[in-house]
Amino acid sequence: MTVTIKTPEEQQKMRTAGRLAAEVLDMIGEHVRPGLSTGELDAICHAYIVDKLDAVPAPLNYRGFPKSICTSVNHVVCHGIPGDKVLKSGDCVNIDVTVIKDSFHGDTSRMFFVGEPKVAASRVSEVSHQGMRLGIEMVRPGLRLGDIGAAIQRHVESHGCSVVREYCGHGIGREFHEDPQVLHYGKPGTGMLLQEGMTFTIEPMVNAGRRHVRLLPDGWTVVTKDHSISAQWEHTILVTADGHEVLTLGASGEI
Ligand code: MF3
Ligand code: CO
Ligand code: CO
């Protein structure tokens, strides 16, 4: 597939889809508390997306994924399937929401802490968040994707954490996952040149321990091999004439 450049009209639809995805994360925050199951979080998000936003939860039936959001708890790196797992104080969970509105996708995720955050979890979450932010702040026409990957990798590794290699950010638009692949590691000066009108995600998966991952037999859930905590944050970004726009900001306006 080739990279799609979004027209101004398409960019407006991406803005809407992005805003709605962020609104789901804003809504679900207060529900992340001890005693709730990840399946209950999924049900709340599903109802909100369908009934309140009149949008479609993109993960549901995507390549056979059975639920409407991804919930990745503690050592789960990504693509955790919501189910019977009951959250307890000290857990951390990445909630990843992708909605389709008017044929366009918005994709964003954040880390949430259940009860009192553990120091190790808040640390790795902060490293992932800061890595994503550093990458986002660089985005402008003329930059290369390798510049972004290298900056994120340098930040993460300088804080004693590791970058997962097997999963990456991605172009996004009418399709959930479009070209290009946005690696969260790499070499400066290499990779695709960014152009105005491109839309893609930046979503570094950062492990507190080693970078290696394992896919569970359910075919979706990715965990750290060493069972160390993993964290991820994600935004959908538009390349503008003079820089970038974050399409998935929540009501706080904070990245
Ligand atoms: N939202 C994830 C991403 O950022 C993809 C989830 S695919 C699913 O790329 F099928 F697991 F939902
Ligand atoms: Co994504
Ligand atoms: Co996502």
How is this structure best described in words?
The strands form 5 sheets. Strands 1, 2, 4 and 5 form a 4-stranded antiparallel sheet that branches. Strands 3-12-11 form a 3-stranded antiparallel sheet, with no helix packed on it. Strands 6-10-13 form a 3-stranded antiparallel sheet, covered by helices on one side. Helices cover 27% and strands 25% of the residues. The protein has 4 helices and 15 strands. A hairpin with a 2-residue loop joins strand 14 (235-240) and strand 15 (243-246). Helix 3 (119-138) runs antiparallel to helix 4. The longest helix has 21 residues, at 8-28. The two termini are 30 Å apart. It is α+β, with helices and mostly antiparallel strands and 255 residues long. 48% of the residues are buried.
Topology:
Elements: H1 8-28, H2 38-52, E1 56-57, E2 70-73, E3 76-78, E4 92-101, E5 104-113, H3 119-138, H4 145-158, E6 162-163, E7 169-171, E8 178-182, E9 199-202, E10 205-207, E11 213-215, E12 222-224, E13 230-232, E14 235-240, E15 243-246
Antiparallel strand pairs: 1-4, 2-4, 3-12, 4-5, 6-10, 7-8, 9-14, 10-13, 11-12, 14-15
Helix pairs in contact: 1-2, 3-4
The structure holds 2-amino-4-trifluoromethylsulfanyl-butyric acid (MF3) and cobalt (II) ion (2 copies).
